[in-house]
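It is worth pausing here to work through a concrete case rather than discussing structure prediction in the abstract. The textbook approach is simple: state the sequence, then state the predicted structure, then interpret. We follow exactly that order.
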Amino acid sequence: SGSSDPYCVVKVDNEVVARTATVWKSLDPFWGEEYTLRLSHGFRSLTVYVLDEDTIGQDDVIGKVSLSRQQISAEPRGVDSWLSLAPVDPDKEVQGEIHLELWVPEQGHPRVLRCHLIEARDLAPRDLSGTSDPFARVSCCGHTLETAVIKKTRFPHWDEVLEFELAEGEPGEAVLSVEVWDWDIVGKNDFLGRVEFPLDTIRTDPTKGWFQLLPFPSTTEEHGGQLGALRLVVRLVEDRVLPPPYYQPLIQLLTEPILCPGQPPAGTALAVLEEVTSGESRQDVATKLVKIFLGQGLAVPLLDYLTTRELARTTDPNTLFRSNSLASKSVEQFMKVVGLPYLHDVLKPVVNRIFEEKKYVELDPGKMELSRSRRLSFKGSLSEARVRESSLELLKGYLGDIIDAIVGSVEKCPLIMRVAFKQLRRRVEERFPSAQHEEVRYFSISGFLFLRFFAPAILTPKLFSLREQHADTRTGRTLLLLAK
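Step two, the predicted structure:
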């Protein structure tokens, strides 16, 4: 058909941790999916496989992108780029672990690094006999040493110590690289996996244990883009969670303007946060603030504080809450945290019906898919009119059902959401009391409820867990027109 039905599988150290939805009939898929993965402190690599879903038979692997922990952590703002897909040969996929001990003796000059290669297990079979002939190759400070070859085994035991003389001074970004290969008497040796260790960590802390073998990391130049490329944004955040008492001073500082409203508003911690957060970090800050204040039972006062400050700065009511300010982002995150079950209750029946019916809807004459005979006939304009008329009827029907579901859901709406919006309406009335601004009190609430809550969920149901898969092209167009 000249197209694919691609989806992605995410693996951390060869363990599947996530799967995206399938994008049907596309060579330029857009997923837009975001995952927060709780990783062990010693994880080694993240690999994303792109596959083509087949209704009959096994899914085809298109390619993969591999990133080592070092690659990800080397970018403070995270990896954000197009990475070429590498081919996936099932016979060359790495597996298994290696048992190592690394240390630098305190005595002696010059200093040496000792690498004790003990054993490996569950290596990939590379020979016809179902085994391999593994040896290890260790590189450090411009020197490379190898162990003996252990014949016909996937569980080699070397018990060899290799020594490397360390240069004077700081190690900088130097690493110790351990690679495992399958020795072949004819042809090239086969790669079985690798692992890397920064020298500065080995110097301060001896390392011993089993380590997952990893593939070679992907690069932007690799394979010339013959299999396509994958746009990834990956950020590694290492959090140390302390016992609750350690956070009490911070919580007191943040909640102070809510609990003690008499102090000058410009000098509060919330006011400072509002000033210093940039566009790209504002959503993260808003999410954390909402969760902290929900935990303290102060979410509504937080939103009241932030929206009141924004109201005070707003002179034109037509621009009220239109920017991605900390107040707007906080209300948006608040609705997602407390209102997701409500959103599902209201929208899911209609969204499911749209997906199941797969009706053709189009209002733009330039995008209408008319049959060839109709396009060549003198009744082409009539055909366009009929498509437009039927599309309008369908959209009115879907939209009417959505509006009826929203209007009839007052009792289902979480009480805390209703209290927050009642307070917002009161603040807007106080700020714009004149009769000419009477409708602003409604626009301020509908702007949040419709533009930042219901409409995005209708446009991309998958991102709000309303559907397990993304919409196909036809259904996606219907959802776009409805959201507009």
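Step three, interpretation. The two ends are 32 Å apart (CA to CA). The chain has twelve helices and 14 strands.
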